[in-house]
Amino acid sequence: MTVRGAVLIILAVLFAAWPATTSAQTAPAPIIIGQSYRLPSAIMGEAREINVWLPPGYGETDQTYPVLVVLDGGVGQDFHHISGLAQLGTVNGTTRDVIVVGIASVDRRRELALPSDDPDLIAAYPTQGHSQQFRDHLWREVLPWIDANFSTDGHRTLMGESLGGLFVVETFLKAPELFDAYVAVSPSLWWDGGRLARQSGAHLRDHSNEPRTLLLYLGDEGELMEAPMAVLLHALAEHAMPGLVWTYRPRPADTHATIYHGAALDAFRSLYSYPTEDE
Which 8-state DSSP code applies to residue 180? Predict the structure, then answer.
């Protein structure tokens, strides 16, 4: 027998002895990242998608958790990468556990933008300008549902990017009591000619001195985005109450398309880091 023939025989014996792979062993299993709900909404006139990520060990004790509400939080939107940051902080022990609630948007300019008087915007986006309706849905339906169904500790943060960031700033200015912290990444303050930024000083003068946090981020995004942000920052410097801790963190290495993930990670570490020994 040749060497080649002996090798072939050995390989045949080994292959015959190899355990058969069953279909059950190769069948894929779903990766469960969170839970998705359809929340009936009388205010919006339809059921809305709400996605929830719970930290590991949730429900095993009587521990309660802060809540991070993420705008544009659909499964195909920003829910996965923001809940992934929460999971990362839990795994490596850099941030406290938090419940992440993603609120899916359907028509972003309708739900996240305040009403515009600009005829061009009205013509381009005829459904625009119902942010107050969406805010009513948020505080009258979504937030009570979260508190009724999950172990929350009463601390709430609202996070959004672009038009979501515009909604965050508007909510902070007009209904600051809804959340304890606000994270606005590249907020579209250009909307309606920057009217919200120009009115920010008047809204800030009406604020109470309750402790709150506002984090603002902006990349290298040009005059259209930067000019109204400068107006808002000036109003904060002039009119913010002492109880407000606000921070502007420009990210010049980022664009509107790249800023969100890094800014969100920074926000996690700012809002949910473990206290130091001196605190």
Answer: S
